[in-house]
Amino acid sequence: MDDEIAHKSDRMSVSRRNFLRTIGWGSIVAFLSGSLLAVVRYLFPKVSYEPSPSFKVQTPEDYEIGTVVVDKPHKVFIVREENIIYALIAVCTHLGCTPRWFPDEGIFKCPCHGSRFYKNGINFYGPAPRPLDRAFITLAPDGRILIDTSKKFSSDGRSYGEGYLGDWKDPRSYLEV
Ligand code: FES
Q1: Is residue 128 in contact with ligand 1, taking CB distance under 6 Å?
Q2: Ligand 1 pocket check for 94: Cβ under 6 Å
Q3: pLDDT (mean) for 36-40
Q4: 176 to 10, 111, 113, 137: CA distances (angstroms)
Q5: Which of 35, 36, 110, 173 suits a disulfide with 92, CB 3.0-4.6 Å?
Q6: Which of 97, 83, 89, 93 lies closest to 171, judged by CA?
Q7: 158 and 168 in contact (C-beta within 8 Å)?
């Protein structure tokens, strides 16, 4: 009887030891994995591949009068009028969705809440409170157009007289051609 009890107690002690050993190794493996992950993150940080807000496009002559060129990677619409070129920033002035250009209708439509904008960026329907913003635009020394979307020019769009232009009157918001 005593032998049996001693045997049982030995078995319990062995399984307790195995259990503790497993927990110990598990903790070590978890610690090493965490450390390894931290080292990998340090060596290969997350890099943002967002395009630069300042970029060059083609020369003014490359844009046909009356056209709108959609530059998806840079999120701008390049509009060529008879005497000027400007870049509308493709961010809806309501809540920031990306409007789309519909060449057949000659307007921009926002897919989120239905705002609509004329080809020149002025809002005429839906909840957008003002026209699309224009980006800084100039001619680079190599003859190509330089655009910088980090510099925005807004129009208040409250009236269609002289007043509506707002910052659009700033010569940095368009390029005379
Ligand atoms: S975000 Fe464009 S209409 Fe609301």
Answers
A1: yes
A2: yes
A3: 63
A4: 94, 32, 34, 10
A5: 110
A6: 83
A7: no
